[in-house]
């Protein structure tokens, strides 16, 4: 028996309004500064969660608004970051790390053990903000996960007219078909 092929649907992405609502984090605690900078970086640069947790202080060129990312297969790429994200990172470093929590890694656990955050920690943070925003804006998807931010950023670039080849480079895809299938 030959089974018919099932059509594949594109992954879920957030609208611009949903992203803005999700990233509208009030800055009251050092963790809030960390979380806002972290989510802005993930969305703004289309980072994988593993790339984010391995990001080191010396990977960020604040002067030129660039970050160096070590992606899958130890492939390195340079991605621009917005001036707003640079300011968020600077505030995060000033406030969060000023309390004695400095580490070579950008994102350390709040308990001060100077360890990198785990992927699960980041998922929980994103779920927490998703739950908060969902109470206000009911159209937010039931489950927001880190890779959804990456897909949303890539889709936004595509809709803004960025060539698919450039998007593939920004995302660290070695095969452009990966970009075409998943994000456009």
Alpha-beta content class: mainly alpha
The number of distinct β-strands equals 3
Low-confidence stretches: none
Q: Major sheet: size, sense and barrel closure?
A: 3 strands, antiparallel
Q: State mean pLDDT (0 to 100 scale).
A: 83
Strand order of the largest sheet: 1-2-3
Write up this protein:
By secondary structure, the chain is mostly helical. 49% of the residues lie in helices and 7% in strands. It has 8 helices and 3 strands; from the N terminus they run αααβββααααα. The chain has a 3-stranded antiparallel beta sheet with strand order 1-2-3, with no helix packed on it. Helix 2 runs antiparallel to helix 4 (83-96). It is globular, with a radius of gyration of 17 Å. The two termini are 33 Å apart. The model has no long low-confidence stretch (mean pLDDT 83).
Topology, element by element:
Elements (H helix, E strand, L loop, with lengths): L15 H7 L7 H16 L3 H5 L6 E2 L4 E5 L5 E5 L2 H14 L22 H18 L9 H14 L4 H8 L4 H8 L1
Antiparallel strand pairs: 1-2, 2-3
Report a brief summary of the structure.
By secondary structure, the chain is mainly α. It has helices spanning 16-22, 30-45, 49-53, 83-96, 119-136, 146-159, 164-171, 176-183, and strands spanning 60-61, 66-70, 76-80.
Task: State the main characteristics.
184 residues; mainly alpha; three-stranded antiparallel beta sheet; 8 helices; 49% helix
């Amino acid at each position: 028996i030959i089974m018919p092929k099932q059509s594949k649907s594109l992954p879920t992405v957030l609208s611009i309004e949903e992203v803005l609502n999700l990233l509208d984090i009030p800055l009251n605690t050092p963790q809030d500064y960390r979380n806002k900078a972290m989510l802005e970086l993930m969305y703004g640069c289309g980072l994988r969660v593993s790339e984010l947790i391995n990001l080191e202080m010396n990977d960020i060129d604040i002067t030129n608004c660039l970050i160096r990312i070590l992606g899958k297969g130890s492939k390195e790429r340079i991605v621009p970051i917005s001036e707003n994200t640079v300011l968020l990172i600077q505030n995060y470093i000033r406030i969060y790390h000023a309390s004695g929590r400095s580490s070579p890694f950008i994102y350390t656990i709040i308990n001060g053990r100077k360890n990198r955050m785990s992927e699960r920690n980041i998922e929980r943070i994103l779920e927490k903000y998703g739950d908060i925003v969902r109470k206000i804006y009911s159209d937010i998807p039931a489950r927001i996960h880190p890779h959804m931010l990456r897909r949303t950023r890539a889709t936004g670039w595509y809709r803004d007219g960025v060539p698919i080849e450039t998007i593939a480079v920004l995302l660290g895809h070695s095969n452009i078909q990966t970009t075409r299938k998943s994000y456009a």
